[in-house]
Amino acid sequence: MNEPSARFREIFFKVCEGLPRQGPGNRACAARALGLCRELQERPAILDLGCGVGEQTVHLAEMTSGSILAIDSHRPSIDRLQATAAERGLTQRVSAVVGDMARLEQQPESFDLVWSEGALYSIGLRKALQICHGLLRPGGYLAFTDAVWRKDNPPPVVKAAFDSDYPTMGTLDDDMAAIRDSGFELVGHFTLPDEAWWSDFYTPMETRIAELRDKYADDAEALAALDRIAEEPEMHRRHSEYYAYEFFVARRPFHSRDRRGVPSRGHAET
Q1: 3-class DSSP state of 207
Q2: Would you say 69 and 46 are in contact if contact means Cβ atoms under 8 Å apart?
Q3: In the chain, what is the straight-line distance between the N-terminal and C-terminal CA atoms, in Å?
Q4: Which of 72, 132, 200, 248 is least enclosed, having the fewest CB within 10 Å?
Q5: How far apart, in Å, are the Cα atoms of 22 and each of 3, 73, 146, 259?
Q6: In whole angstroms, what is the distance from residue 122 CA to residue 38 CA?
């Protein structure tokens, strides 16, 4: 796979950093997933992994009474979320920090809810599930979205697009197996509706691309980058029947065992 050029990355971030969110999702889907966490603590400790600019972080703050730690590796996204939290008077409950999902410093069993929209795949789904399991208190919930294949034999343009970013992407059954194998109990799942791809993601993306085409009208390299970025929403417009984003809600059991049958820490049998 060819690494994107520095100029492409520059244009990519000019497009994406100003969007309401950096992946599919919306408030209605977040509310539906949160509703599956039926026994969540009244004031839960929440961890939002790969938070981006934090649209869903704000939704969680509005829909719960909990405290939220939001983590992302991209400093400008964290800066924007910190500004949003300050503007909305949420700084007492929302903390946004730069961090590496694969090397988190938070203590085990520190959270009642781990939330992640479209980010766990970046370090490998199974590795991410193991990390989330360790961070949750027994009885805690994990809510996350992940891209899955819906049909076999996708068109080459679709296969190539996902192979470049998510080569290990599986089916719905593959993800459910990974959840079970990681020691979770699956509570429920649902497919994100098409509006969740467009309302806060692809529609503002296409608007932003159009604005930048005017700005860079005399810059062939920038225009080529914008053409490449524009391929993503167009691919979804033409071929969305081949793939989807699935929202999963799982729970760490109160008496979970690892695959060797050893009781989890803090819950040894007597």
Answers
A1: helix
A2: yes
A3: 53
A4: 200
A5: 20, 13, 13, 35
A6: 28
Count structural domains, the chain: 1
Compute how many other C-beta atoms are within 10 angstroms of the C-beta atom of residue 86: 11
| Residue owning tokens 């969680």 | 60
pLDDT digits (tens, 9 = 90+) for 158-171: 999 999 999 999 99
Buried b (16+ CB within 10 A) or exposed e, 139-151: ebbbbbbbbbbee
pLDDT of 145-160, one tens digit each?
999 999 999 999 999 9
Q: Is residue 57 part of a domain?
A: yes
Distance from C-alpha of 172 to C-alpha of 168, rounded to nearest angstrom: 13
- What burial letters (b/e) apply to 201-224, b meaning 16+ CB within 10 Å? bbebbbebbeebeeebeeeeebee
What is the number of alpha carbons within 13 Å of residue 56 lying toward its C-beta?
34
Answer for the pair 169, 145: CB distance below 8 angstroms, yes or no.
no
Cα 132 from Cα 46, distance rounded (Å): 12
In a domain, residue 112? The reply is yes
| pLDDT at 263 exceeding the cut of 90 | no
Is 53 part of a structural domain of the chain?
yes
122's enclosing H/E stretch is none
- Domain range for 203 is 6-251
- Residue 190 within any structural domain of the chain: yes
* DSSP state letter for 198: I
CATH number for the domain spanning 157: value is 3.40.50.150
Quote the CA–CA distance of 79 and 83 in Å, as a whole number. 6
pLDDT in tens, 38-65: 999 999 999 999 999 999 999 999 999 9
